[in-house]
Amino acid sequence: MIPQKEILKALEAYHPKKMAIGTICSHSALQIFHGAKREGFRTVGICTEDRRELYESYPLARPDVIIPVKKFSDVLSDRVQSELLAENVVIIPHGSFVEYVGAKNLEDQFRVPVFGNRRSLQWESSRKQVKEWLKKSNCLVPKEFKHPKDIDRICIVKFSGAKGGRGFFLTTSEEDYKRKMQEKIQKRVVSAEEAQHVTIQEFVNGVRYYPHYFSSPFENNGKGRVELLSMDKRLESNVEEIYRILAAGTLQELKINPTYVVTGNAPQTIRESLLPELYGMGRRVHESSKKLFGGIVGPYCIECVVTPELDIYSFEISARIVAGTNLYPEGSFLSAYLFKEPMSTGRRIARELKTAITKKALDQVVY
Ligand code: ATP
């Protein structure tokens, strides 16, 4: 793992007034560039040729500088890293960044300063660690089953890695599990190797919420503050609108299994009486992260389900900006109570970086 002091050394060579915000042109990049520009930063996009037209088509969100790449994983190459360092870039790691580059490679090979604590990206990439993190944060988590023979309720079967729900399936018994897994392998949805490393988790029936938090070490007179900036609900294909097919028969008759592949996001609010617990969860996840890996800085999200009993179950943490924040470039129904100006998560990141530059405290928000 590259030590933080090495990254801070690279940062010392940066000119504070010329510091730029950069990321891969995907996921939440438009929002990140838009927010950075509003805070007065130059912006740098790492872009493949096929996406260039789109990213240049939005005058208020287009990157000032484009670093062309053949494929996004080229961001690890010496050429791209040197260009990023020469442009004085602080990278904002989003979901696609972590997916294309890999959390381990980011820790071991990426010499460019990254906003936040890069160790949190390694923590979010392991389901086992996320479970430990959630438990240590006193969050309610769905029950897990080690062996398919123990399945005694509706379960969701997950494959490892940030796959955006790809390949997941529902099951109700060992027999059903074996049949569906065999089908997945035969159809090459997953490999036999991937089938060995699954999480069998109780399916929590309720309404999903994806609250967007931001932890700032500077607010509250330097004591730090966790902000609940906004929330969304992920749109997942095909489960989202599967009811539209039910006029033709039951799902069993039609041999259709629900799938959970993310295609987009929708805005969502929660009843105000549930806000205290939702906020508390974000604060506790932040608190426990300090003991586990030195603390989470900047944006993060807890994926949860609210049951009819109004219990909030958490099943995943994203330790970086999530794409659901793209709904709120002009701020949200919650950020309005925190900031007088429109505050997206992208802009919030840029604001925090600006504060760190002014306070000469970049070591608190960059690794
Ligand atoms: P990402 O990394 O993009 O968040 P992932 O591959 O880690 O995706 P999850 O986020 O764990 O997958 O799950 C994908 C989707 O499956 C969720 O958004 C949700 O709709 C559904 N889901 C996951 N776990 C549960 C659960 N225990 N109960 C009900 N639904 C669930």
The fold-level CATH name of the largest domain is D-amino Acid Aminotransferase, Chain A, domain 1
Structural class: alpha+beta
Roughly how many Å apart are the termini? 11 Å
What small ligands are held by the chains?
adenosine-5'-triphosphate
Return the string of H and E elements: HEHEHEHEHHHHEEEHHEEEHEHEEH
CATH architecture of the largest domain: 2-Layer Sandwich
Q: Please, what is the average pLDDT? A: 96
CATH-defined superfamily of the largest domain: ATP-grasp fold, B domain
DSSP summary: helix tally: 13
Q: Which percent range describes the beta-strand content?
A: 15-25%
Strand order of the largest sheet: 11-10-9-12-13
Largest sheet: 5 strands, antiparallel
- Overall morphology: globular
Oligomer: single chain
Helix content: 25-40%
State Rg: 21 Å
The strand count comes to 13
Low-confidence stretches: none
Number of domains: 3
The level 1 CATH classification of the largest domain is Alpha Beta
What does this structure look like?
There is one protein chain. α2 links the parallel β1 and β2. The model has no long low-confidence stretch (mean pLDDT 96). The radius of gyration is 21 Å and the shape is globular. The protein folds into three domains: 111 residues, Rossmann fold (3-Layer(aba) Sandwich); 154 residues, 2-Layer Sandwich (D-amino Acid Aminotransferase, Chain A, domain 1); 59 residues, 2-Layer Sandwich (Dna Ligase, domain 1). The protein has 367 residues and is an alpha+beta fold. It binds adenosine-5'-triphosphate. The site of adenosine-5'-triphosphate has 22 residues, from β6, β8, β10, β11 and β12.
